[in-house]
Amino acid sequence: MTAVVHPPLSACPACAAVPAAQAVADVAQPEAQIALSLPTIHCAACISKVETGLNAHPGVISARVNLTLKRASIEAEPDVTAQEMADFVETLGYEAHELDPGTLSSTATDKMGRELLMRLAVAGFASMNVMLLSVAVWSGAEDATRDLFHWISAAIALPAIAFAGQPFFRNAWAALRHGRLNMDVPITLAILLAVCTSLWETTLSGDHAYFDAALTLTFFLLAGRYLDHRTRAVARSAAEELTALEVPRATRVRDGVEEQVALADLSVGDSILVRPGGRMPVDGEITQGMSELDRSLLTGETLPVQAAPGQLVSAGEVNLTGPLIIRANAVGKDTSLHQMADLVAIAESGRSRYTSLADKAAKLYAPGVHILSALAFVGWYLATFDLRTALNIAAAVLIITCPCALGLAVPAVTTAASGRLFRRGMLIKHETAIERLAQVDTVVFDKTGTLTTGTPVLINAEAIPEDKLAIAMALAQGSSHPLARAIVQAGQAAEAKPEQLHDITEVPGFGTQATLQGREIRLGRASWTGGQAGEHTTTFLRIGEDAPVAFEFTDQLRAGAAEAVAALKKAGHTVYLMSGDTTPAVQSLANRLGITHWLAEALPADKSTRIQAMTEKGAHVLMVGDGLNDTAALSAAHVSISPASALDAARVASDIVLLGGDLAPIAEACTTARSATRRIRENFRIATVYNVIAVPLAVAGLATPLIAALAMSFSSITVSLNALRLR
Amino acid sequence: MNILAYLIPISLCLGGAGLAFFVYTVRSNQYDDPEGDARRILSDDYDERPKS
Fold first, then answer.
1. What pLDDT is attached to residue A527?
2. Are A48 and B35 inside 8 Å of each other by CB?
3. A454-557: which CATH architecture?
């Protein structure tokens, strides 16, 4: 960066020193750009509290809160880390999460949206001015006045259309070059033909000029495009934020020294430290440490598995109890997590066959309009041998049939529907997801992490004596193991007071032990405590040599899971449960929720082949899943939903992301999607009715610019209002 | 009717000024945080301009 310091013009030395100091700072070092997600901010007081707090922090150069995105962007000294800033904001009383600035960069400047907005503004300005001039012509301006108005209209319309119509011209040219027709070809032809004939008419001081129609057309169509773009930009930015929340970083151990490095910098053979609660960054082999691994996101198993040196681990597994050092076998693109992407790519090729309603309409519509307009031209030319009349009528036909309402029909409805679903906590990622969701008749759920939260709950708390629960609580408090946390929660619910224990030590892979009044106490696996494992997930508490006390757990249902399944069944959908977990676990959940079709111990490939088989039988499958083992199934299904807690790979593969923890919106979303598709069809019908009335007038040569303007505006407005009726 | 010679350019200039202002607002990131700006105006903190 180069900074030019101008000679001071003022007499105040301090004023002069400021820009100079700034210039020095600019040259010295680039500042750290930090982005934080602040999901709980909601008011003016929150903004000023966070901003004044951050700006008062010594390491911060400037901070700005964006309430719409619920984000803070901070410019800080190079040595300030994002974690420090997040912790600092937490002390101010707001939840804060670090965001990966690299992932967010594309939403920071929405260039496409800004460009469209600019074109929309120019088209709106020009069309309003030309429309005012046209009103004067329609209400009876004659001779020189009319010609003057036409010339002024031309002067406004030509540059405006040349600027605002570019997106259509570009798309039409791209389609024509590949020998195809799309919606933009008739649009471009109509605009260009209207402008050319109007210009010709104007030079001959004729009665009719269609400058206003050409501009209004551009304006309405751009409005449709902009709505479409907004909807997608909102979805993309929210999806990117989810990804950015997972900052890819790992702790590398080199010659006994730990250092934080980016995932991209790891190489095969590196030793990596994974702390309890951390996720495996790479595929590798355990070299040091004992622990337990939570593999539920990869395989759907609820129960943690033991981990010991020599065992292989895959990226994405969560380390639970003890620190592990692993040696990387595969990094980056070679990890099993990334290889799953190949499976997804194969499954996805099936989905691209879906043609959206808009494309179907365009396929019917585009050739029809051209043929109609060409026939009108040829007919009138043969009847009158007057090129001017024939061309005028052909232009009138094109303008009146032009898909103004058709261009708004789909975006207006999808904007309204995705806005509604977003408020209920559903993020629509794919543009045709709503249409596909409307066709769904079969719903397939994954178990762990989708219908259940993947966190166990204690079920036999009443059967356990209070003093035993108090001891177990004290043992469990220090551990991050899911079963230990469940015991602490149950103890807190029962208002038990944790006992005072001595020498609490965690034995990674087995459990926790301590001493109480000289007796050894153990809480952990059956084999380590001498218990007998039952049908449920069980952990045991042994005091001295007494008989061990069993603590039984079950997987907790996700909020709204029962409601969602019940509502989907009531709506006539077939509900399936497919899981990689063990048969008893899956069976008991299926019974609890009243799901009759279930499949346990399913491999990732099993799930996707099952779904493909259903699709071949004509079913439209909605897949709801969160794990890596679901990604292929998510892509193979007609439409797919994943919760926000899912792995990045699963969220990428699915069309819709459930932002809250609640599953209940799924059933409502199906209803909303169905009514949205109904509105889209209605809109197409409305647009067709307008055409059926106006086209014969145009072909008969009775359409004046006034009629064209009325038909166009009325059909666009009815279509937009119809879209807003969506409930 | 000669008044048109003044009125039309005047109206076009006014409209054009409006368009130019709109373009300025888009360029200076004034639509990045509509919700935040709506609340910020209620707070007493002096807020010079939207920082990019």
1. 77
2. no
3. 3-Layer(aba) Sandwich (3.40)
Please give the Cα distance from A492 to A495 (Å, whole number).
5
Span(s) in chain A for CATH 3.40.50.1000? 426-451+558-659
Chain A hits for B50, CB-CB cut-off 8 Å, are 64
> In chain B, which residues have their Cβ closer than 8 Å to the Cβ of A65?
36
DSSP per residue over A14-27, as a string? Answer: HHHHHHHHHHHHHH
**Closest among A443, A436, A442 to A417, alpha carbons compared:** A436
Contact yes or no for B43 and A62 at CB 8 A:
no
**Confidence (pLDDT) at A336:** 67
Pick the CATH number of A267-331 from 2.70.150.10, 1.10.510.10, 2.60.40.1220, 3.90.226.10: 2.70.150.10
How far, in Å, CA of A261 to CA of A508, rounded?
26
Q: Nearest CA of chain A to the CA of B22: how many Å?
A: 8
SS3 B21: helix
Supply the ipTM of this predicted assembly: 0.83
Domain A426-451+558-659 belongs in CATH node 3.40.50.1000: yes
Compute the distance between CA of residue A317 and CA of residue A647 in angstroms, rounded to an integer.
11
- Nearest residue of A to residue B22, measured between CA atoms: A121
How many whole angstroms separate alpha carbon A269 and alpha carbon A291? 21
Looking at the partner chain, which of A43, A67, A148 has a beta carbon nearest the beta carbon of B33?
A: A67
Q: How far apart are CA A725 and CA A541, in angstroms?
A: 60
pLDDT band for B51, please (50, 70, 90 cuts). very low
Candidate from A64, A117, A121 with C-beta closest to B19: A121
- pTM score, two decimals? 0.73
For A420, the token pair is 């509604």
Helices A482-493 and A466-476 pack at an angle, to 10 degrees, of 140
Q: Please compute the mean of the pLDDT values over residues A548-556 and round it to a whole number.
A: 81
Question: Helix-strand-coil percent breakdown of chain B, rounded to 5?
Answer: 60, 0, 40
A294 catalytic, yes or no? no
pLDDT tens figures, A98-156 = 877 766 655 555 778 888 889 999 999 999 999 888 888 888 877 888 888 899 999 99
pLDDT-derived band at A348, boundaries 50, 70, 90: low
Residue of A nearest to B23 (CA): A118
Instruction: Find the helix or strand (DSSP H, E) in which A670 lies.
Output: helix A665-699
Measured CA to CA in angstroms, residue A622 lies from A90, A560, B16 at distances of 39, 17, 51
**What would the pLDDT profile of A49-72 be if each residue is shown by its tens digit?**
888 888 888 888 888 888 877 888
